[in-house]
Amino acid sequence: MLKTVDLTLQVLMKFTNENNSWTGKKLASVMDQNYATIYRILKTLHKRDFLTYNSVSKEYSLGIVLWQLGQTMYESLNLEELVRPSLIQLKEETDESVFFTVRRGNKGITLMAEEPAHKVKFSAEIGSSVPLFPGASYRAILAFQSEEFIADLIEEGLPQYTPQTMTSPAALRKELEMIRKEGYARSEGEYTPDVVALAVPIRDYENKVNCSVTLSGPSYRLQKTDQSKAILLLKETALNIEKILRNTSYKIG
């Protein structure tokens, strides 16, 4: 029974942003499992609305029940009402896109975003999950993880998302040291082409860094702005959020 439950959870975890739909045969092959077993699990999950089924492509995708559970979890946290006012203020002060990113395992998830009224802006997909290295939002968090954590992440590989992605372990370690020294991270076009990002780490009430706040926009515009001023505003925003997290004993990660 426990093995079946564990296998069912493994099946659900295979539905990611990169692979959001599967046929039964392909999923069984990737998981190196008996097709009949995977088929029964998929049919049960579909029956309970954990998955949807496309009869034309014969592919399964995540269903409404998982979205409902996610919404329930998210709303119970009340994190948005604690953090979003600070994000709105930073957006209004800079007139650029502002993001709040949290760590989940070895990945960063964009949890909240505030967008300016510019016709040209950088829009991040809420809920998108990215390894903690290609860009300022993620490195601002990675820099303050343990050496073992960083070594494991590097060991897993540093895939290249754009020609500017930092894929050298030595260069990454040097960059993380700079972030710890300066208190902020900067990137340009590493995950999304032609986008500059500035990010600052945020500590929770246990003094752990599991989230960051980011200011981002098109390269042609942010390169012309006073980035030192933007960094100061980012640091002020991070301090405001840290005070809120400390006062509410809110733990992230």
Automatic annotation (TrEMBL):
Coiled coil: none annotated. Keywords: DNA-binding, Transcription, Transcription regulation. It comes from the Bacteria. One of its GO terms (biological process) is negative regulation of DNA-templated transcription. InterPro entries: GAF-like_dom_sf (IPR029016), HTH_MetabolicPath_Reg (IPR050707), Tscrpt_reg_IclR_C (IPR014757), Tscrpt_reg_IclR_N (IPR005471), WH-like_DNA-bd_sf (IPR036388), WH_DNA-bd_sf (IPR036390). SMART domains: HTH_ICLR. This is IclR family transcriptional regulator. The lineage of its organism: Bacteria, Bacillati, Bacillota, Bacilli, Lactobacillales.
